[in-house]
Design goal:
Largest sheet: 5 strands, antiparallel
Strand content: over 45%
Distance between the termini: 6 Å
Order of helices and strands: EEEEEEEEEEEEEEEEEEEEEEEEE
Radius of gyration: 17 Å
Number of helices: 0
Length: about 260
């Protein structure tokens, strides 16, 4: 699914080949995160958590509410953040990263009730892996969080300003939008297996390869190990070991992607 803004189409679906096959218009356009939750999507839309069917239609939350609000009255995010920084669904709970307060807000997916706030300095994106572990960007590190919110494993990313995160039981992908770099880490050891991305002169056309990124603003792993990278004007599927491009989905309006 692809978040759209300029085109006025907030949600677009792509086949595994990268071909777009459906677009869905929604009244609220500001989708800043989306994740699977069983047979529905859970999406961060403006200051709320909403449910979207697999066909792209807004549906009520489990308790019948239109959405669950995230921020309480008077709460503010860090400067430069219009919306929360990340969202992940795990164990019947939705976890939302709130930079500024530097907390991971945990909410019951059935009722919308706040379960707790976990303090995490420099929190940015969140991701859950297929082993049931919640990961978060914390400053320039990536950390796994225990069920009570306490950090468990903590690995340095080697990036200056990591912002976006994807996780599997074997690998982590951390994206630094400012430097256009993506670090691939071993989930168990934290060893940096590869750093994708390179600098180019501003007056040159970017190289057509999987090691050059155009304003990357989202990463996600496909089940076969390919890494989806959302960039300005395109989504690409890249084999992270050799930076080979498996497919490219071009668009003038591309913004962010989640598998």
């Amino acid at each position: 699914a692809t978040v759209y803004d300029e085109a006025g189409i907030p949600l677009r679906f792509h086949a595994a080949s990268g071909q777009s096959y459906a677009g869905v218009n929604l009244a609220e356009k500001d989708i800043w995160a989306i994740a699977f939750a069983g047979d529905v999507f859970v999406a961060g839309i403006q200051n709320g958590v909403s449910r979207i069917s697999l066909e792209g239609e807004r549906i009520p939350m489990a308790n019948g509410a239109e959405k669950y609000p995230i921020l309480a009255d008077g709460e503010k995010l860090a400067e430069g953040f219009k919306f929360p920084a990340g969202l992940a669904v795990l164990g019947g709970k939705v976890h939302v990263a709130l930079p500024g307060p530097d907390i991971v807000r945990v909410m019951d997916l059935k009722t919308g009730a706040k379960i707790g706030d976990w303090r995490l300095a420099g929190v940015r994106d969140l991701a859950s892996d297929d082993a049931g572990t919640l990961w978060a960007i914390s400053g320039t590190d990536v950390v796994s969080l225990k069920q009570d919110g306490q950090p468990d494993r903590r690995f340095p990313t080697g990036l200056k300003a990591p912002r976006y995160l994807a996780a599997t039981a074997a690998r982590l992908a951390i994206c630094d939008r400012e430097s256009a770099r993506i670090a691939i880490l071993d989930t168990k050891t934290g060893q940096v297996a590869k750093v994708l991305g390179q600098d180019l002169p501003h007056d040159k056309w970017p190289l057509v390869n999987g090691n050059t990124f155009l304003d990357p603003r989202g990463v996600a792993f496909l089940p076969d190990g390919k890494l989806l990278v959302s960039e300005a004007g395109r989504i690409r599927a890249i084999w992270p070991d050799n930076a080979q491009v498996a497919f490219t989905a071009e668009s003038n309006f591309m913004d962010a992607a989640v598998p």
